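User: My collaborator sent over this chain with a note saying "see what the structure looks like." That's all I know about it. Can you take a look?
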Amino acid sequence: MNHSSLNAISPIDGRYAEKAAELRPLFSERGLIRQRVRVEALWLKALSADGGLPELGGLPAEALAVLDALAAEFTEDDAAEVKRIERETNHDVKAVEYFVKNRLDAVPAWRTRREFVHFACTSEDINNLSYALMLKEARDQVLLPRLDALIGQLRALAHAHAALPMMSRTHGQPATPTTLGKEIANFTFRLREQRNRFGAVAIAGKINGAVGNFNAHLVAYAQTDWPHLGRCFVESLDLHWNPYTTQIEPHDWMAEYFDALARINTVMIDMCRDLWSYISLGYFRQRTLAGEVGSSTMPHKVNPIDFENGEGNLGLSNALLRFLADKLPVSRWQRDLTDSTVLRNVGVAVSHALIAWRSIERGLERIDVDAACLAADLEANWELLAEPIQTVMRRYGVENAYEQLKILTRGQRVDAETLHGFIASLAIPEHARRDLLELSPARYVGLAERFAREV
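Assistant: Without extra context I'll predict from the sequence alone. Here is the result:
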């Protein structure tokens, strides 16, 4: 850890800096400025290519290449220059406009056309597209690949232990057996479903002026089909066109994005708590690491800290994500600025999610199954077979089947001998009696193995 991280207020840039490193180029101030410069440059290129603006006709290829370079190449020194200009303008987007103009001044073809930078745009035209691109890159380049890796890790665990019997617990009490692989498969499937919903969120944008009506655009160039041009530009960024906005894109897609991400996190909170509990029961043993300390006073401890850290960071992420989803679609009349400061924290919410996912990955890498512990739990709870016995009794018309098993087993431990004696007394076909006598808690797992292997 370097000295700057030791002085960071947020653990994202301090203690957990390495776990969120992939997001820093996307959500940092430099990342936001990079997207703003990109949008300004590509919008100017789109205006030049349209043909409806004669003043931008006949530009040489090298002049357009400068725009491509501005959109693709953005250094830390460039970001520092934008911030220097901002100290004079006291306006972040205007500083980007001046930065682009200054770069174009070096190209003779642009010197008489520099006022077309930021043409007919409000700041929100640039900002909404910049945040859309940031969140799209974060999802497609970082979050989905990381989530896919975690789902793959869980799928491998589900397949490896598909046939390993395990006692369930409903309401915390011994319940119908399953397999360890099937319980991991449940989370695998849930996360895959939520991953697909997150990946399907249409990330939208607009570039339609001060209140969404292309007012200034039409005054300058009445014959240009501005809605068509705006749509083509937004779609060229691989974003979904929103034709109906006020000054701001209403952020409904952001709410959907953050809600979808929060649902992924919620599934993982559920999983962290289950895995933590299985470690507590002894179903999983954690591999020790040389030099690691589990407690400052109890030398024996190997704490499930990765799942605890994961749960904590998931909770932080969801608190922010749900606030963002509730707040961002709400704006007074055609625009207020409450979204501006809030939007600067989207990276914080996403970063806590990524930090949590990495902790869970690490936790999964450290656990080994204790098959003997699972088997002992099952062997100590033969009363679990009360369910199949009374179900078979019902099939063959035995009166008060449920009630008979309730008297025999409710609230007490029953061993194999007691159950076998009860089965032997039943007035049921011999083949059914034989099948019940062959049952054990470890064999009573239904289709759990199949479901675990098919996930």
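A starting point for your reply to your collaborator: The chain has a mean pLDDT of 95.
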